[in-house]
Specification:
This protein is 42% helix and 19% strand. The protein contains 13 helices and 15 strands. The strands form four sheets. Strands 6-5-4-7-10 form a five-stranded mixed sheet. A five-stranded mixed sheet has the order 13-12-11-14-15, with helices on one face. The protein binds zinc ion.
């Protein structure tokens, strides 16, 4: 019995085969059938059958072989296959505190439009949050003369505790309510498939698809912005944990009964290193004008620290040491091949300083082998949005391949 259960059904096998072939084509950009057979281990006949299904479904197209430029090319030029870009239009949104960054890509990952929106509040009622996204999507698609109806799928990356398979938000700083079935709300309002995940997981996906994580099967991404996030890739897959809330590096405890965190608990790393934690200390130790915004105050804090002013420097110094300790804990637990520190704001550069990385290395277990490589990768919110769009691409590909089975 056990053996029977492990054996995939015919339609599952077909589905897996198509997924694998699509994955290989996506990775290579364009590739000949014979090379797909080599990459997947499928027989040339199987590859021919699968690719003709994919062509019929409109997901893949043939590219006419290039004419040999001179007579020195031997053999007949081979027809290559590539993804059909206009098969699907996908949108990705990165929800940050008070802003949305959005991108529209085609099925082949080509960026077609970008859009940024300021949000009126940090945390919004779910219905208003969905409204804001609906409006922003209409503006985004309008940029290339399309509408939301033309989108096949939407990926949304937001910070908080999110169960990706169900799109359920246990908690997010962007919503004023806990336990929100945000995917259902959005799918009802937008009438399209929506895929929601923790934003740090989507940065890990983006790093894996188009960044520093390409070809690396075990790596960890630590993100730094308003909060601290982490994405873990193990054996080429994002590790999400049983409840979907794994890798909450920002809520790793670094202090017993310590500072109060946005999540409601005490002593979390985020309560020491995030923007709001820095501001909480700066508001006590520094003098700001009444009308300054949090962003202004943060800038003033960084400027003061750069100018060597004592209270400001001590605030950032303490936060850096906390961050180094947190990173060393992660390395001691996972021993990854690579750690990518991924952040947008240059204001967080002090976390990437050599002294911080040296402090981290001092706390990493020492053996006769170098510690894991740490790479710093700065990129914009748009790349986060592209990670969200990539997540929607994965989801839509799965739905499309399953739909082909139903047709078969
Ligand atoms: Zn916390």
């Amino acid at each position: 019995m056990a053996r029977l259960e492990r054996t995939a059904s015919g339609s599952e096998q077909r589905e897996n085969g198509r997924q694998q072939v699509l994955g290989v084509i996506r990775q290579s950009g364009q590739i000949a059938r014979i090379d797909i057979a080599r990459e997947t281990g499928f027989s040339p006949a199987t590859v021919t059958a699968i690719t003709s299904d994919l062509i019929r479904a409109g997901l893949v197209e043939e590219i006419a072989p290039e004419e040999p430029r001179s007579g020195n090319r031997r053999g007949r030029p081979r027809v290559a296959l590539r993804l059909r870009g206009d098969a699907h239009l996908l949108a990705g949104i990165k929800v940050a505190v008070r802003s949305l960054s959005m991108v529209l890509i085609d099925f082949d990952g080509v960026t077609l439009a970008e859009h940024h929106v300021r949000l009126p509040d940090d945390a919004m009622p779910p219905a208003r949050f969905v409204d804001e996204i609906a409006k922003a999507l209409a503006d985004l698609t309008g940029k290339i003369g399309k509408t939301t109806r033309d989108i096949s799928g939407l990926g949304v990356g937001m910070s908080g505790f999110i169960d990706a398979p169900t799109g359920f938000v246990h908690w997010s700083p962007s919503l004023d309510t806990r336990n929100v079935d945000i995917r259902s709300l959005m799918e009802t309002a937008l009438k399209l498939p929506v895929f929601v995940d923790n934003d740090a997981n989507l940065v890990a996906l983006a790093e894996q698809m188009f960044g520093e994580g390409r070809g690396v099967s075990n790596f960890i991404v630590v993100t730094l912005e308003q909060g601290v996030g982490m994405g873990i890739v193990v054996d080429g897959r994002i590790y999400r944990g049983k409840r979907g809330v794994a890798a909450e590096f920002g809520h790793a405890k670094v202090h017993l009964d310590g500072a109060l965190c946005r999540c409601g608990q005490r002593g979390c790393l985020e309560a020491y290193v995030s923007d709001y934690a820095l501001l909480r200390e700066a508001n006590v130790l520094m003098r700001f004008g009444d009308k300054t915004t949090p962003e202004d105050r943060l800038d003033m804090l960084f400027d003061a620290a750069n100018a060597g002013e004592q209270p400001a420097q001590s605030i950032l110094d303490r936060a850096s040491r906390m961050f180094a300790m947190g990173l060393a804990n992660v390395i001691n637990i996972f021993d990854p091949h690579l750690i990518i520190l991924s952040g947008e704001q240059f204001s967080h550069d002090f976390y990437y300083a050599d002294e911080v990385l040296a402090a981290m290395k001092n706390q990493v277990l020492k053996i006769d082998a170098p510690p894991p490589e740490v790479r710093i990768h700065r990129w914009s919110d748009l790349m986060w949005a592209k990670g969200a769009a990539a997540y929607a691409t994965e989801g839509i590909t799965e739905l499309a391949v399953r739909g082909m089975n139903a047709d078969a």
